[in-house]
Design brief:
Rossmann fold, about 375 residues, about 40% helix, UDP-glucosyltransferase activity, UDP_glucos_trans, alpha/beta
């Protein structure tokens, strides 16, 4: 056997299964890039359809940067959304992936060379871990939040009620206030609460939990997790954070602070240092027209230059209105844009790039 063949044979072959939402997808792709740079062979399992165009574009851009990563398409079964008491497209996508998870078995078992492990997003843990167990395939869960949030996730199945003002989690230095919980967790009967509970319960069945944090900021909580104070039987919790933008995938946009030539990027380049207020409530937060009108008026009256990312719908595929239709009616907002005092965009933006731009002085 040649030396090159021996090296290829010894390289671990790892599959990664992303979930829905840019906040879940981006860290997983950064982890994938890091694994490639550490001589791992990778297969990215791409879910079809995705929820948003932003996810589709990001995956396409990533694969263009790493053409030697193998892809395997995972086509979801149709989901009868009318039978589920939830309208959030991302939670419904979690459910669709979970209900189609049995289709993963042939994808995983026929991989060549055979897989060494599967890395799954936390939102899919309860659906995927039993499948990897049946295949005797190591399964690692990627947790994109903090160690404190992981503690809540792992302990949540053992909490009888969330009606108290605070929740005591073993291993954490102080109780979590109820107001700190994601709103969907306040209702234990909600779809997200059910998913969160099931995924938290399944953590003990995984081979390890990879988390986007580091000892320097959450050392005590990580220690509590790994010593069984939060939940007994947890597998190793492995901090690998922060998952920073990688050179090959995001160098052009972040590290060198160069963006594709868009009107937004060109406008930012023309502004004075620290003069622009950046307004963005996240890729999943859709505001009402009244809220946008009030916010628009506030931006105009502030007298500051602004870059405002608006969302009329939670999912960009469904958001067909022009920017003027979404923010129209706000006192002075269209005039401010016309005069170059602000920019309003509807598409997903690279927040790392924006926040790293010299012109942005506040968020």
């Amino acid at each position: 056997m040649s030396n090159s063949s021996e090296v290829l044979r010894l390289r671990p072959h790892i599959a990664l299964l992303p979930s829905a939402g840019m906040g879940h997808l981006t860290p997983l792709l950064r982890l994938a890039a890091s694994l490639v740079n550490h001589n791992c062979q990778l297969t990215l399992i791409t879910t079809h359809p995705t929820v948003s165009l932003a996810e589709t574009r990001l995956i396409s851009q990533f694969l263009s940067s790493f053409p030697y990563i193998t892809t395997n398409e995972f086509h979801l079964l149709p989901l009868n959304e009318q039978s589920i008491a939830n309208e959030d497209p991302f939670f419904l996508q979690f459910e669709a992936i979970s209900r189609s998870a049995h289709l993963l078995s042939p994808l995983l078992s026929t991989a060549s060379p055979p897989l060494s492990a599967l890395i799954t997003d936390i939102s899919l843990a309860s659906a995927v871990t039993p499948i990897t167990a049946d295949l005797h395939l190591s399964n690692f869960v990627l947790f994109t939040g903090s160690a404190s949030m992981l503690s809540l996730c792992a302990h949540f199945p053992f909490i009888s009620t969330t009606t108290q003002d605070s929740i005591l989690i073993p291993g954490l230095p102080q109780p979590l206030l109820k107001s700190m919980l994601p709103p969907p967790l306040h209702d234990r009967s909600s779809l997200f609460a059910a998913q969160f509970t099931a995924n938290g319960r399944e953590l003990v069945e995984s081979n390890g939990i990879i988390i986007n944090t580091f000892d320097g900021i959450e050392g005590n909580t990580l220690k509590a997790l790994n010593e069984g104070e939060v939940v007994k039987g947890l597998p190793p919790v492995i901090p690998i954070g922060p998952l920073i933008p990688c050179d090959q995938f995001e160098r052009s946009r972040v590290i060198l602070n160069v963006a594709p030539p868009t009107p937004m990027a060109s406008w930012l380049d023309e502004q004075e240092e620290g003069s622009v207020v950046y307004v963005n409530f996240g890729s999943r937060t859709a505001m009402s027209r009244e809220q946008m009108r009030e916010l628009g008026e506030g931006l105009v009256r502030s007298g500051h230059k602004f870059l405002w990312v608006v969302k009329g719908k939670k999912v960009d595929r469904e958001d067909e209105e022009a920017v003027g239709e979404v923010v129209g009616g706000g006192q002075g907002i269209e005039e401010a844009v016309a005069e170059g005092r602000g920019v309003v965009v509807k598409e997903w933006v690279d927040q790392n790039w924006v926040l790293g731009h010299r012109a942005v002085g506040g968020l």
